[in-house]
Design goal:
CATH class of the largest domain: Alpha Beta
Bound molecules: 3-methyl-2-oxobutanoic acid
CATH topology of the largest domain: TIM Barrel
Radius of gyration: 20 Å
Number of domains: 2
Distance between the termini: 55 Å
Structural class: alpha/beta
Shape: globular
CATH superfamily of the largest domain: Phosphoenolpyruvate-binding domains
Strand content: 5-15%
Oligomer: single chain
Length: 276
């Protein structure tokens, strides 16, 4: 019986409504970042619920230190590539730094470009009260919005560090009030990044939309990780919250070493790998 239930859950196309149902059913939501067609196809086939075309592409794909440099055009390129590889997952795209903050018209234009040019299903924006106008304007165009509170990498130069956020009462109170505000505005889900597990639990229990955590403990409605971290492509990023499920870095390194050896020793290509 449990097999039948889980197979129907993995076949159904994921929508914002399904995520809401999952929260009500207390069924955890799995979310992962994706930046390209081939990996998105693998993640979708594995049954991931939500794929986030994260602006972490700026770090893990482009090699920048922060998420700030990535452009709207680059995000659209990644998003369109992911969309082509996916049949079931809901695809959410980060609106990049500089294309929505402090300007709701820019937020609307950026979000519409993302939706039209990539074919994705929703956008994500970082912030609470300070981006309320942008969130409302994007929602008014019928574009689903996912919120993001806690550690907000686009504001790294304001925070100064990547340490755990909202440990102090004042910041925790603002986070709770921002979460409620985003729910009232009409966001369909909320990401909470790197905050105390107790606070994340309180937020998840006090709002009705799904709360997806990264470094926010297990008492939320779902989890998200950066796929390059989960797969062990990145090696120098080891926060407490990260669980590595593979060591792709070593696998790729060893494979390329063997290839180089085979080319140098004339072992590759052999007769079977050549045309007559
Ligand atoms: O860009 C990203 O990868 C993200 C996740 C860390 C949630 O926003």
């Amino acid at each position: 019986m449990s097999t039948a239930k889980s197979s129907s859950a993995t076949e159904r196309k994921v929508t914002t409504h399904l995520l809401q149902e999952m929260k009500v059913r207390n069924e955890k939501i799995s979310m992962l970042t994706a930046y390209d067609f081939s990996m998105a196809k693998i993640f979708d086939r594995a049954g991931i619920d939500v794929l986030l075309v994260g602006d972490s592409a700026s770090n893990v794909i482009a090699g920048h230190e922060t998420t700030l440099p990535i452009t709207l055009d680059q995000m659209i390129y990644h998003a369109a590539s992911v969309v082509r590889g996916v049949e079931r997952a809901l695809i959410v795209v980060d609106v990049p730094f500089g294309s929505y903050q402090g300007n709701s018209r820019a937020a609307l234009e950026s979000s519409i470009r993302i939706m039209k040019e990539s074919g994705a299903h929703a956008v994500k924006m970082e912030g609470g009260e300070e981006i309320k106008e942008s969130v409302l304007r994007v929602l008014s165009a019928g574009v689903p919005v996912m919120g993001h509170l806690g550690l907000m990498p686009q504001s790294i130069y304001k925070f100064g560090t990547y340490t755990v956020r909202a440990r102090e009462e004042e910041e925790a109170a603002k986070l709770i009030s921002d979460a409620k505000l985003l729910e009232e505005c009409g966001c369909f889900a909320l990401v909470l990044e790197k905050i105390p597990a107790k606070l994340a639990k309180k937020v998840a229990q006090s709002i009705s939309i799904p709360v997806i955590g990264i470094g926010a403990g297990g008492d939320v409605d779902g989890q998200v990780l950066v796929s390059h971290d989960l797969l062990g492509v990145t090696q120098d990023f080891n926060p407490r919250f990260l669980r590595r499920y593979a060591d792709i870095n070593t696998i790729a390194y060893e494979a390329v070493k063997s290839y180089i050896e085979d080319v140098k020793s004339c072992d590759f290509p052999n007769k079977d790998e050549s045309y007559a």
